[in-house]
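Exam revision sheet. Question 4 asks you to relate a sequence to its structure. Input first:
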Amino acid sequence: MDAPEEVRLARRIERDEVHRGRTRESVERQWREQVAPAGRAFVEPYKKDAGLVLDGTAGVEACLESLLEQVKALLG
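Answer key, C-alpha cells:
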C-alpha cells in the first residue's frame, strides 16, 4: 500500500489524536524522529521489488479492483 508522505502523516495524526489520545505535537515528533527515517531506510528501498503495490489514496474499492486484476493476471 503506497500513499504520499503527507497523506500517511495526516492519517497517523488523526488516528493517534482520536483513538490514542496523543497530542499533534507528539505524533509529529515521533514521525520526524522515528517513523519517517525508518520508512526511508526499510520500506522505500524495497518498493521497486514489490510484487504488488496498491494506491493508498484510491479508496478501498479501487484497491480491491486492482488486487483482483493482478490476481487474475497471475492465474492466467
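Marking note for examiners. Helices lie at 5-20, 24-42, 44-47, 60-75.
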